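User: I'm putting together a small comparison set for a docking exercise, and I want a reference complex before I start. The sequence is below, and the ligand is magnesium ion. Could you produce the 3D structure with the ligand included, as structure tokens?
Assistant: Of course. I'll restate your input first, then give the structure tokens for the complex.
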Amino acid sequence: MSNLKVDNLRRNYGSVEALDGMSFDVAEGEFFCLLGPSSSGKTTTLRAIAGLEELAGGAVHFSGQDVTEAPVQGRGMSMIFQTFALYPHLSVEANLAHPLRRSGASSADVKKRVDEVSELLRVTHTLKRKPSTLSGGEQQRVAIGRAIVGRPKLLLLDEPLTNLDAKLRHEMRAEFKRLHRELGMTMLYATPDQLEALTMGERVGVIKDGKVVAIGAPRDLYQHPGDTYVAQMVGSPPINFLSATGSGDNQVELPFLGLPVAAPGVASGQSVTLGLRPHDISLAGGGSSRATRFPAKIHLTEPLGDVTVIDVTARETGMKMVLREEIAAKYNVGDDIEIAFDPEDLHVFDPSTGARLGNGATQKN
Ligand code: ADP
Ligand code: MG
């Protein structure tokens, strides 16, 4: 059952269409991520759902009711912002109690809820302190606590990890998943970071220019991106795009390789864009029998710790691949190698519209 229904929202600032027909549904208890670059309309969408935006059109339904015109208070929603401003002059305890006090809860109730929430978020040891004496991660946990202490039915999260360092972001991703499991709350999480969206979201809505252009489970978006925009938004390092030409008979030609494709309608002489994920390229030898292999030269290596991203060129065509660090360590810039991929991992797109035309096919021998 759909718990939140966002239908064709419109919002403009002068000539800027911040929301241009924003639509998506979130199921009850779901962890839904909105993934989009900066300025694509994420914040405006969350604010519109919370009732903080003047809309030019569209509707928001929540728990079966049209709340488009409903006041902010009483929607049963709570929002966490990118800058998690806490009241600096109040203790952590008073910060957590604030939303409850404002809604007129009894002192006994306030104490009970603050204790519960601080335990859940592991900030009990900070209750008597001022926010400025807490680490960034602790402050963010308190901000989350303040947002959930009133037991909202929907939690709106606007890039809550963007201002934290890499290690904390990693910890907090796990923390959000735990909270979601333990609270069973519906969560709508906006982020420009594909890793956050793919690791946390049960479903992800990909935003472009004020509207959702694709919705799916992370695996579906990764394996079957509907166009080049979605293909490059999802996956890291980003997908390789290679220019090729149809040669008729379900075959395309790269400058260094001819390949069969399952993309009906690709005509002889037609330009196509082939998408090939760095993780789908391997060293030749010992791999799948379906693999297509070709020579390449190592152009650049980028060690990331456990894996190394390798830039290779095959007949002037550059692409990235990913190798485990201990394997990559055996190679140097300038080395000639043979690399391979399974043709079925190829994505075939139309270069002018970006639309998916099909995928690669297994070589017939
Ligand atoms: P995101 O959160 O994805 O970065 P926003 O929702 O903040 O995107 O913004 C969407 C678009 O609306 C952007 O082009 C932004 O510049 C514009 N915008 C947002 N808020 C305002 C505002 N208060 N005044 C003018 N333009 C705004
Ligand atoms: Mg924003």
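Residues 13, 16, 18, 36, 38-44 surround adenosine-5'-diphosphate (ligand 1) (CB under 6 Å). The chain has two domains: 2-232, 233-349.
User: Thanks, that's exactly what I needed.
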